[in-house]
Amino acid sequence: MTNQPTEVYRIFGAEMSPYSVKVRSYLRYKGIPHQWILRNAESEAEFARHAKLPIIPLVVGPDEMPMQDSTPIIDALELDFPQPTLHPGDALTSFISALIEEFGDEWGNKWMFHYRWARDLDQRASAGRIARIRAPRADEAECGEVADKVRARMVERLWYVGSNEINAPQIEQGFAEMLDLLERHLSVRPYLFGHRPAYGDFGLWGQLYELWTDPTAGALIEGRAPHVLAWIHRMLWPRAEGEFELWPELSLTLMPILTRQVGALFMPWTLANEQALAGQRDVFSVQLGDFTWTQKPQKYHARSLAMLRGKYAFLHDRSRLDVVLEEIGCLAGLQPRPT
Questions:
Q1: Which of 33, 71, 94, 252 shows its CA 20 to 30 Å from the CA of 324?
Q2: In-domain check, residue 2
């Protein structure tokens, strides 16, 4: 490994990290020269030299400046690499894309983490894969020891991300519904917002890609959602195949996703999570449709919600957008919070 400046961006990540593959897909789409570096025992020293936090992805630019957290990484790179754009020209569609990006990162991660670590089959498969990534030169016994430690640690974190005996049926029912809604939407277009990938594609795709690589969720995707599967493959090396669609066309199949998933599940959850953190509660419950959702608060998500509110507040004309946000049940949650 070298500390000398390079002409390419280096991305430290892992194939099993939804946020790592999300950023890698973005770099591929933009045609940004980059080097994919697995974060493991062999790259740990270089990772530690640059990382401010022990999380991936870490992107190090040619100027040696480090960036972490997938959404801010993409936002920062978008300033230097604006073409091909990720954002539809229409403010309404562009913000909906940002909303789906946030939904994918935060709510979609619950599907991914649950299916990866809730069942014995997926636990064994995932822990084994992670062990081989982290310790590529380990023998079978050593790899088994690493896998056991990974499995124990991740299973303990299920409750933290919201996967528990109370929420498990809601997670799996919600994922099945999302697959059906997304299958219908993607049956007539290659990407979420038309014929080129948008901001929202990358956030949602990172989670769906990881779900597809795991045994239980992968079988569900392959068995019931062929167009979703095609999109998952397409987003590995995304490309502009045409233009973004206009909202009247998109809304026919996108509105059910926004209403039944983003507005009915994600938004009330994220607001309850924010309130629980403000009240310093250890556990919170919120009514989501016919179910009561219970989990420990997630600190990072309150920050990402604040960033989404900032993007909403930045818009000059929100009249058309507000009509849609009100219809899907998200408008009140995006209003500025009292300080």
A1: 71
A2: no
